[in-house]
Amino acid sequence: MKNTWPKLSANLPGLRRPNHCQACDQFTHKTLELWREHDDNDQPTPIVVCLCHACAEQIINPHPRLYSPIEKNTPVPGAMEDLCTTCVHRADLTCKNPLLKANGGQGLTIITPEPPTTGFWDGCDKSGRRTGGRLVLYSAPAIYCEGNPQAGDKDKLTEEHRRLIQLAREAREQKP
Ligand SMILES: [Zn+2]
């Protein structure tokens, strides 16, 4: 039988909420980090873990399972502090909104105040293998999600953002 490592997402004792550290079980506003969990073949999974910085430093390195940091402000449906904490579609740190593409839907509109900055990185891992990837950086958290339109910083929504929300909705309604 294949050896399976324990998963932080399942084993840590704390609440699984976007504004809460799952390790020390405290609300540690704005020092929280999201980490993506990987499976037994080291492939990324949809599961994320929310930890305060202090706990992440303590447990991520010694933990045998592969965790990768999710860059700050990246929109992660289900785990965005401002938008998901109070949302009815959230289950732990995942989004169950049927519109979400990951849930088989046609797409859920999420607005970030500015488009992300993208880049590439290139390097070597510990064993000398070539590694690299695409970096996408967001300067600020998402301000609107269609699944929980009451949440978020609505004052930051521009006319253009509102038009985009409307266009996305119309495009969806025209699909069979
Ligand atoms: Zn903590």
How would you characterize this protein structure?
This protein has helices at 8-11, 53-59, 81-84, 159-174, and strands at residues 32-38, 44-52, 67-70, 90-91, 94-95, 110-111, 117-124, 130-137, 144-145. The termini are far apart. Strand 7 (117-124) and strand 8 form a beta hairpin. The model has no long low-confidence stretch (mean pLDDT 89). The chain folds into 2 domains: 1-70, no CATH class; 73-176, no CATH class. With 176 residues, the chain is of the alpha+beta class. The strands form 4 sheets. The protein has a 3-stranded antiparallel sheet. A two-stranded antiparallel sheet has the order 4-5. Bound molecules: zinc ion. Zinc ion is lined by residues 21, 23-24, 28, 51-52, 54-55.
Please tally the helical runs, counting DSSP H or I stretches of 4 or more residues.
Answer: 4
Query: Total domains, how many?
Result: 2
Main-sheet strand order equals 2-1-3
Runs in which pLDDT lies below 50 for 5 or more consecutive residues are: none
**Alpha carbon gyration radius:** 18 Å
Mean pLDDT: 89
Distance N terminus to C terminus?
Answer: 46 Å
How many β-strand stretches? 9
Helix and strand run: HEEHEHEEEEEEH
The percentage helix is 10-25%
Question: Which molecules other than protein and nucleic acid are bound?
Answer: zinc ion
Which structural category do the helix and sheet elements fall into?
alpha+beta
Shape: globular
Main sheet characteristics? 3 strands, antiparallel
Proportion of β residues? 25-35%
In short:
The protein has 176 residues and is α+β, with helices and mostly antiparallel strands. The protein is built from four helices and nine strands.
